[in-house]
Specification:
By secondary structure, the chain is an all-alpha fold. It has one domain. It is built from eight helices and no strands. α2 crosses α3. The longest helix is centred in the middle third of the chain and has 23 residues.
Amino acid sequence: MHRNQDKEQDFLNKMNKHAGILGRVCNSYFTDPRERQDAAQEILYQLWKSFDSFQGTAKFSTWMYKVALNTAMLHLRNKRQAVSLSGITDTMPEWASADDDNASEENMQLLYAAINSLPDVDKAIVLLYLDEYSYDEIAAVTGMSKSNVSVRLVRIRKKLEEKIKNHHL
C-alpha cells in the first residue's frame, strides 16, 4: 500500500511541475471551454494509466508531451466522427497558463488562436518548439526526422507570423 502512495505522490509531483504542458496542449487543440476540460481530464487519465510505462529514458516532460498530444489528437478524431460541423463553435481560447500575466493575455489568446488554426501535427511541433525542446527531442515525440522537423518549423513560423499579423485565424 505504501508503494502505491509513493507512486501517486511521484505522479502528482511531476504533474505539478509540468502542469503548463497540459494547459498549452488543451489551449492549442480545443477552443470550447467544456471541450478543453474534457480533453484535460482524458489526458490526465491517460497519463496516470500509462505512468508505469514511463521508463526515464527520456525527460518526463517529453514523455508527457507525447502522451498529451496523442490523446488530444485522438480526442479530436473521435469528436469529428461523433459531432456534426454545425455543433462546433469558434470561440477564442479563454484560459492561459498560470504563469501568463494579464497584460499579455490578449497576445496569448491571439497566439493560441493562430496555433489552433494549424493542422494537428504542426500544432504539436510548435508547442514543443515553444517549450524549447531540441529538434532531436521534437523528432522523437512526433516520429519525424530531425531535418523534417526543421523544415516544418520554418514553414510553421511563416504561417503563424502571417496569421497573427493579418489576424486571419
